[in-house]
Amino acid sequence: MNIKDIRIVGRQLAADPGHFAVLILGLALAFAALMLLMSYLDTTLRADASVPEAERVLRLESMTHTPGADKGWILGTPMAFHDHWTDAGAPVAAASRYFTRDMSVRAGPRLFLFKIGFVDPGIVEVFGLHSVAGDLVDALKRPDAVVLGESTALKLFGPGNVIGKTVEVAGKTLTVRAVMPDRPSASALPTDILVAITSPVMPDPFRLTAWFSIRGTNFVRLVPGASSAQLVERAQTYFEQTPAIKELPPAFGKIATFRAVALPDIPLFGAESDTTRRLVTGLSISCLFITLLAAINYVNLSVVRTIGRQREIGIRKALGATPARIAGQFLQESVLASLLACALGLLLAWIAEPMVSGWVKQPLAAAMFAPTKLFVAVAFSVILGLIAGAYPAWVAMRIDCAQSLAGRGHSESPVGLWLRRGLTVLQFGAAMVLVSTTVVVLWQTQHASQADPGYDTAPLLAIDAPVDLTDPRLSALREAISHLSGVQAVGLAWDIPGRFNRNTTTELVTPKGQSLLQAFNFSGPGFFQSYGVRPVAGRLFDPELDKQGNKSIVVINARAVQEMGFASPEDAVGQKLRMDDQVVEIIGVVPNIRQRSLRDATGGVIYAIGSPRGVSVLSVYSSDPVKTRQEIEKLWPTHFPNEILQIETVQAQLDRLYEGDLRLGKMIGAGSLIALCLAAVGVYALSAYMVRRRTPEIVLRKLHGARRHHIARMLTREFLVLLAIGALIALPISAWLGEQYLSEYVDRAPIGGWGLAIALGCTALIVALAATRHTLRAMAISPLQALRA
Q1: pLDDT in tens, 164-194
Q2: In the β-sheet with 487-493, what is the strand arrangement from edge to edge?
């Protein structure tokens, strides 16, 4: 490339601004999508890249095989492992438990809500943590100390030294002993407040030694040369030999399986990574399709323009320009256009970053403009420009100098024409796949969010209480709320049904002597009333008759009636069951209340009021939830002055079950919209070329009596054939992708073939709109003017 060629390239770009505006905008969208994708991958998949020898850091995960348990792998494992790694013979160099809870933190007169991580001092070696002030290890050995992230320290105390300052958590005073750099939000250790797990503010300390509790996480750093398989084998063997597990009745069988996932693999392959994996896959496919469609558009538009410039090319060849020089000029134009598109794409990515960051729940700005990302973007733009410009350059090289100067038009070869038709088919197919997938994801998400959970969510509020039922402040608050105008019932439970993240399992013996395992939930006496649930048979727990702690009565759901072998709900009422060497009476049967998302089937459930431990959600049934919420906000400080009120509608809590699916639908939907726009540009370019190439044929047809509608039918037929071929390729792929997504749900939306039909209809509409202008132009061609030209 020399200065003269650069000037020529610049003049060519300026000579046809409309053409290059469309071309550059398409490539810019591809670059914007690429930058956003790279930023998301970097913030998500490399969040713990700074951890030294990260492949030696493992998170122990579990799969529970008892009724009512979480489906699939979860990151929770018994924290009791921490004190027994040596006894188990596990190859562990360092280890730490990790337990989190959203808790209120008071700094002076101000109150904040933070996710606090309770850890052991070994977390410093496991993650290779370092401090910017204070001693991390010493701080995490002190039960009265707290470690803050830099941004958290700034938020609590402002700029300056914070070592020695105090905060109040759960009524206890903690002293800041260390400050560490902020952890990435996608890290496996994301919390920016760390407290010793032996601290008196640690919630549910019984979980530290209970082998049946899986509400904590175990991180370990292996000794050099050890493998994850060795750790899992030792953990599994030791767990099954503990007295707590060996004493279980045989009916429980193997209650849990363990696995260990290396830190670099956690984002995509660890427990609860389904949402991240779907987002990564959806973003990657959308980005790939957008880039492919933009490149195809570049080829189509450039070929049409190259053929239109054949006289210019002929003159340059007559003046001595070699074919290689001509090809070089076209490649230079392509690379320059690609670099301009890259710059515009960076601008578009910067504009879209806040919206996309909200969708993926990750801040992308810092990673987007890192030097390595910019270098990759520029390098990719040069490579893409060379690839996209190769075919137009080859067409330019083949233009015959004599024919072009003589005014005899040149068109690309039949092979080239069919190649571009094939690329257009690919555009149609990619657009259909993205549109169909968007329809399936959003339709299923809408269906799931509106599915009946077994109770009416409209009048319901839920308060995540900071204490359990034994705290008199909670009882006093419950009593005060029950007297508010519009409040019809107030109840307590382990969790919100549908958001349920707590469960236990019990073995029972039915009146017929049948032994089976059943999911078991604790609640307060007013639980069902607070959710507006009415009995199918018998009665519910009654706050006036049944006091918390009564272990002799239970309520079961309709599914449990079937599983226990009763003929009807009425038949089950009054029956006696033996549970844990105790006889209980079934006093009522309730409808099947969905305990988890639509990805899990509804099973039998036993409800009891025998234990207050873990009761942490206060539910309020009100005829005016908005007014009741305002009144509760006024009541709260009088009962919990040092705690932030966490109150939301139950529907808002249930909607969070499908937040990841909604984000996925939005991301693929944005990709679909871009893909349709790019496909429209591709059709526009191809229709322009078709009219140019077939002008002589159109003239001859008109001279032989063809009408305007005959010309329109001739041109439309070609696009219909390409659209049909694209549909034959894309719709089966779309159907397969939709089925793969829906296979995770036990309750599926009645989508049928609507996703495919909508995708085909949207693509056909875009094709029709894009081809209309040049079709009308072809219909209006005057044979006399065409022959004179």
Answers
A1: 999 999 989 999 999 999 998 889 998 889 9
A2: 487-493, 617-622, 460-464, 647-649
Give the whole-angstrom CA distance, residue 296 versus residue 424.
Answer: 8
Shared domain for 184 and 236, answered yes or no, is yes
Residue 721 belongs to some domain of the structure: no
pLDDT higher than 70, residue 615: no
Residue 651 lies in a domain: no
Average pLDDT over the chain reads 84
Q: CA dihedral defined by 22, 24, 26, 31, rounded to 10 degrees?
A: -170
pLDDT at 681 over 80: no
Q: Which domain holds residue 190?
A: 66-254
What is the rounded distance in angstroms from the CA atom of residue 421 to the CA atom of residue 214? 58
CA-to-CA dists, residue 393 to 34, 512, 662, angstroms: 26, 84, 44
Q: Nearest to residue 147, comparing CAs of 159, 132, 160, 158?
A: 132
Q: What is the pLDDT of residues 442-469, one digit of tens each?
A: 999 888 888 888 888 889 999 988 887 7
Q: Is residue 723 part of a domain?
A: no
Domain finish residue from 219, 254, 289: 254
Same domain as 627, residue 493: yes
Q: For the ranges 631-640, 656-665, 683-692, which has the lowest average pLDDT?
A: 683-692
- Which string of b and e fits 527-538 if b means at least 16 CB within 10 Å? bbbbbebebbbb
Count of structural domains, the chain: 3
DSSP letter assigned to residue 70:
P
Cα dihedral sign, 83-86-89-93: positive
Last residue of a domain, one of 220, 254, 288: 254
The verdict on 582 and 499 lying in the same domain is yes
364, with CB counted inside 10 A (0-12, 13-18, 19+), is buried
Is the domain of 229 the same as that of 315? no
Structure tokens at 19: 């053409």
Q: What is the CA angle 65-71-77, rounded to 5?
A: 65
Which string of b and e fits 483-504 if b means at least 16 CB within 10 Å? ebeebebbbbbbbbbbbbebbb
Q: Do 635 and 517 sit in the same domain of this protein?
A: yes
Residues 199 and 316 in one domain: no
Please return the burial class of 135, using the count of CB atoms within 10 Å of its CB with bins 0-12, 13-18 and 19+: middle
Residues constituting the chain: 789
Q: Beta 537-538 vs 576-579: how paired, if at all?
A: unpaired
CB 475 within 8 A of CB 618: no
Sequence-ordered list of residues with C-beta below 8 angstroms from that of 628, at least 6 positions apart, any chain: 461, 481, 484, 486, 487, 620, 622
H or E segment and range at residue 584: strand 582-590
Residue 634 shares a structural domain with residue 487: yes
Whether 35 and 82 map to the same domain: the answer is: no
Question: CA-CA distances (angstroms) from residue 114 to 200, 265, 526, 774?
Answer: 17, 27, 30, 60
Is the sign of the CA dihedral 323, 326, 327, 328 positive or negative?
positive
Residue 572 lies in a domain: yes
Q: Which single residue is written with the structure tokens 């009593």?
A: 479
β-pairing, 582-590 with 217-222?
Answer: unpaired
Which residue is listed with tokens 């070592």? 163
